Amino acid sequence: MNLHRILASVEEVTSLDAAADTSARIASQVVDGAGLGRILRGSWLGHPVHPLLITLPIGTWMTSVVFDVVFKDVATARRLIGVGLAATPPTVLAGWADYVLLNKRQQRVGLVHAVSNAVGVTMFGLAYRAYRRERVRAARVYSLLGLASISVGGALGGHLSYAQGAGMFRWQPVRAVTHRNPVEYRRAA
């Protein structure tokens, strides 16, 4: 099984184009309409913000499963899920800010990435609620389903970045055009 081939196959699903166009339009209205695009895209930082923000929800959710399953500390597991859920809206907004800059093939992958992660967020929301109701077994199932879903979403996000080059060299025009290190470019000139 070639995982790269599976991930790349999403790029070819033209039936996603209408949904991708609608998503890009809505994302542009929400993010750029509110004047948040420049901040959320990370031009002030020199690279996209979304990859930095994803570490908080993913980290807290993975750790919550460890606290529940290994340490049997469901209170900490629930709190960690809550922190991850609270960190999700800015992470989604930053992803939407980047989404509008993607080409069509990247938007197809980005859309499936977003849907997979939305399923994961929903599962962790259900897990949080189950923990609050002291339904630990159900919370564990939701958490594991959530981890599986965000793992698929993460693989697609990695494909976007590393295989498709989404967001790469965005603020480095010499490298974006030549695909060379700026120092090498100056030596060659």
Give a quick rundown of the structure.
By secondary structure, the protein is mainly α. It has helices at 3-9, 17-32, 37-41, 50-53, 55-69, 74-99, 104-132, 136-163, 173-178, 182-188.
Can you tell me the residue ranges where pLDDT is under 50 for at least 5 consecutive residues? 180-189
Overall pLDDT confidence: 90
| Assembly status | single chain
Approximately what portion of the residues adopt beta-strand conformation? under 5%
Shape: globular
Classification by helices and strands: mainly alpha
Written as H for each helix and E for each strand, in order along the chain, the element string is HHHHHHHHHH
Helix amount: over 70%
Count the E strands: 0
Radius of gyration: 19 Å
Report, as a whole number of angstroms, the end-to-end distance.
44 Å
> How many domain units?
1
SS element count, helices: 10
Sketch the major β-sheet. none
Protein name: Membrane protein
Organism: Mycolicibacterium litorale
InterPro entries: DUF2231_TM
Keywords: Membrane, Transmembrane, Transmembrane helix
